[in-house]
Amino acid sequence: MKTFHELSLEERINVSHQQLERMRRPNGGYIASPYNAEDGSGDAYNVFWIRDIMFATYANEYLGCFDKMVESFRLVLDIFKRYHSRIIQASIIKPDVRHQTGQFLPARVHPTTLDSITDAWGHHQLDVYGLFMYKMGDLIKKGYGFRFKQEDFFLISHIRNYIFNMGFEADYGMWEEGPEEHASSFGAVLGGLMMWFDQGFYDYKYRHKIEISHYVPVSERMIADGVRSLARVLPRESANREYDMAQLSLIWPYNIVDFQTKKILLHNIETHLVGERGVRRYPGDVYCGKGLRPGDHETAEWPLGLAWLAICYAKLAEHGRDFDRAQNTIQFDWSQRRNYFSKAIHYFQLLEKNMTPDGCVPEMYLGDKTGHNTPLAWAQSFHIISGQMLTNLSAAHPREFKLPPEVRQRHAPIIPALADA
To answer: Distance (Å, rounded) from C-alpha 346 to C-alpha 301?
Structure first.
């Protein structure tokens, strides 16, 4: 029987999707990973992280499994509804993000009951709200059959109010650390607000212009606050982090920064954070999962980041244009686009080199050892997305974007044996 690395690209994407679907639950959600902590070595990850569900189901859109994606986002909407009262309360009276954590929407919930796992957590994570607003608007504009009710728009309007009241201020961010002002959080929120704003920032994404601003109006003041706040932090991720893998979200999915800023972010991440096994989250990151012990100056590398880089470069190749700081269009010639496609191929190959023989994307590597969260759901999703993007680009422009034979039909690579910890 062939291993994952001996399969064709189409087969590898299918196997990767099978691994992802093993983490899907009957209600449409995805657990973060199968790790259940029965060995007593740490927190269980076989629960729902709201962010992880949304990014995990993203792969279904690229595979044409729209019903599955809609079902997942309907579940996320239900989770928000369950904690709607907390959102309303925080939109009126600002809770203390450090000491009143139980007054926020929980970042993770039980996969069946949807109860909060614990209140002792950094739950105020602006990027979760931003991603939710962004994708809710996107679902309407793409017409994927997501039937909204008036109560759904009430909820989204209260999320808008929550963002306005909490402000573009410190949160716990994508990595649930802080509180601190995070560029990735501000960019996610700005992207979410822009999706509902009436100035057509994302019109280029859609064949038909569908106006949604009347459902959940967003003021120019909120947009201006977001633009200023993001500009204040960039190109850093935060006061304590000069660069961070989370900043890739500013390029995809949100495309919320200008081309010059994109180049700076990509340069910083590729120069300082990319390794042979993955991308370090940020300099000095000490998290390495349970059971792994880092050596001096050793930092875990996340294969997720390789997939993310492949996606970002594939998007630059796909669009053939970008915008400068004055919102003027920048056109790419075919030479530039081919270069971006080649970079996407490079990171995709490096990603697959570090996947397991059965097609799983580990959360991280510390040296040659994988972490216990293998596979990691949203990393698995990003592998599917990056592979499908490259396939689609090659099919759309076969003379310009050529998939190398070793990508179309792989052979088993010679890599060191992996040791699970």
So the answer is: 17
- 8 Å CB contact between 365 and 350: no
Domain range annotation of the chain: 1-24+273-421, 65-243
Torsion-angle region of 291 (φ positive above 0: left; ψ -120 to 50: alpha; else: beta):
left
Beta-carbon count within 10 A of 67 CB: 12
* pLDDT tier at 208, thresholds 50, 70, 90: confident
Angle, helices 183-196 vs 150-166, to 10°: value is 140
- Give the DSSP letter of residue 47: S
Give the type of residue at 11: E
The CA–CA distances, whole Å, from 370 to 5, 274, 302, 354 equal: 18, 17, 10, 10
- Interatomic CA distance for residues 3 and 73, integer angstroms: 33
Report the alpha-carbon distance of residue 345 to residue 118 in Å, rounded: 41
| Predicted structure pTM score | 0.95
Q: Which residues share a beta bridge with 8?
A: 409
Q: Give the side-chain half-sphere CA count within 13 A for 418.
A: 22
Distances (CA, A) of 395 to 118, 133, 321, 345, 403: 47, 32, 19, 15, 10
What's the pLDDT score for residue 2? Answer: 86
Q: How many CA atoms lie within 13 A of 219 on its CB side?
A: 7
Q: Is 323 helix (H, G, I), strand (E, B) or coil?
A: strand
48 backbone dihedrals φ, ψ, rounded to 5°: -95, 120
The alpha-carbon radius of gyration of the chain (Å, integer) is 20
In whole angstroms, give the CA distance from residue 318 to residue 239.
33
